[in-house]
Amino acid sequence: MVKVTINRNHKNQITDFSAKGHAEYDKYGNDIVCAAVSAILQTAIFGLSEKLALDIDVNTDDGWLNCNLEGYEAQKDVSLILEVMVIGLEKTAESYPDNLKLVKGGRNNA
Counting CB atoms within 10 angstroms of each CB, which of 11, 26, 53, 95 has the fewest? Predict the structure, then answer.
C-alpha cells in the first residue's frame, strides 16, 4: 500500500507531504495506482518548481518521496496547486482504498 501523508500548519496550510510504499495493485511496471499517485505528486512538484519557479526541497528514492514547503505555504498559488493535488489523491484513494492510504495531519498541526 502507498501511504501519502499531508502535513499542515496551524493555519491549515500544507507545509510538507510525503509518500512511501508500493500500491501492489499489479506487478511492477503495470501498477495503475502507483502510476496515478506518482503522476499526481510529480505534477504538483513540477507546477511548484517550473510554473512558480520555486526552489523546493524534494527528496526521492524507490517507493519514497518527501517534499518540504515550509516558507512557501502562505503563497496563494502554492496553496492552490497543493489543494488540487490533495483532491486528486482523495479521489484515487476512494477508488483504490486497499492500495492508497491518505493521512491528513501530522507533526505540524495545532
Answer: 53
